[in-house]
């Protein structure tokens, strides 16, 4: 176990750079903050690089601090060094550094495709919803927020550790997916759609596309969709944000699949 006091320490500087996309891409690492997320990380198959504890905070949970994955990777940090690494303004006393997993496209039977979803909170929430409703792969299309950005990691609430996030061109992915699942359906959200989301067949093999917050699903992705659907609403709002709309579609797909299984 090592103690690090200075914010100018080489390790601290390297870990602090993980708050930027460029830093994460260069190092192949990302930051995980808070006891709950650290616990989820340690349960996952992702590789732990370092476990960091703020010496000014309460003692870390023994089960996490003494986890076998952390052997030889524990670091005690001064409050100043810990704050330099943390992304949050009032960080909890425990953080981890993990390796970004290198997943290949699996083209599984139930996938979520993010087509330029820019807001990190939306991306994290959608990853969380995908994991909750049985979608094991999330495609991170061009223009979509980095799934390993600290805010995305926090918003995913551990879902990012259990689903495969794949950086891939949306149109290429959908073409391959359609070829591999000839009986499947590609469903895209569209404000001008006539079909309701509960009328689209999503009980079986399905790819759900969620588009950019302002522009919606791109023209290329929309052309590859079998169905464009809208969410029926009773109020005067003409749309929902990407995370809410996506979660409703993912739940609808889960509901249909569950009903078919009964």
From TrEMBL:
GO biological process per UniProt: methylation
Gene Ontology MF terms in the entry: methyltransferase activity
Keyword Methyltransferase in record: yes
Matches recorded under InterPro entries: Alpha/beta_knot_MTases, MRM3-like_sub_bind, Ribosomal_eL30-like_sf, rRNA_Methyltransferase, SpoU_MeTrfase, SpoU_subst-bd, tRNA_m1G_MTases_N
Keyword Cytoplasm in record: no
Domain RNA 2-O ribose methyltransferase substrate binding: 31-104
Similarity comment: family membership: Belongs to the class IV-like SAM-binding methyltransferase superfamily. RNA methyltransferase TrmH family.
Protein's name according to its UniProt entry: RNA methyltransferase
């Amino acid at each position: 176990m090592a103690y690090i006091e200075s914010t100018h320490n080489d390790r601290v500087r390297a870990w602090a750079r993980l708050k930027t996309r460029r830093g994460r891409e260069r190092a192949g690492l990302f930051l995980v903050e808070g006891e709950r997320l650290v616990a989820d990380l340690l349960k996952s198959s992702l590789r732990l690089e370092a476990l960091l504890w703020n010496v000014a905070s309460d003692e870390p949970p023994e089960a996490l601090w003494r986890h076998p994955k952390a052997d030889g990777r524990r670091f005690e940090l001064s409050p100043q060094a810990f704050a330099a690494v943390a992304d949050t303004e009032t960080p909890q006393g425990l953080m981890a550094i993990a390796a970004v997993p290198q997943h290949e496209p699996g083209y599984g039977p139930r996938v979520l495709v993010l087509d330029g979803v820019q807001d990190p909170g939306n991306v994290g929430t959608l990853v969380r919803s995908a994991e909750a409703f049985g979608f094991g792969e999330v495609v991170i299309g061009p223009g979509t927020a980095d799934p390993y950005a600290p805010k995305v990691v926090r918003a995913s609430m551990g879902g990012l550790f259990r689903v495969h996030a794949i950086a891939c061109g949306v149109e290429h992915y959908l073409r391959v997916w359609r070829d591999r699942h000839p009986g499947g359906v590609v469903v895209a959200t569209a404000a001008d759609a006539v079909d309701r989301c509960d009328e689209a067949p999503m009980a079986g093999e399905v790819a759900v596309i969620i588009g950019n917050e302002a522009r919606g699903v791109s023209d290329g992705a929309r052309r590859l969709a079998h169905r464009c659907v809208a969410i029926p609403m009773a109020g005067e709002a003409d749309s929902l944000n990407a995370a809410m709309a996506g979660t409703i579609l993912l739940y609808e797909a889960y509901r249909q699949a569950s009903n078919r299984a009964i």
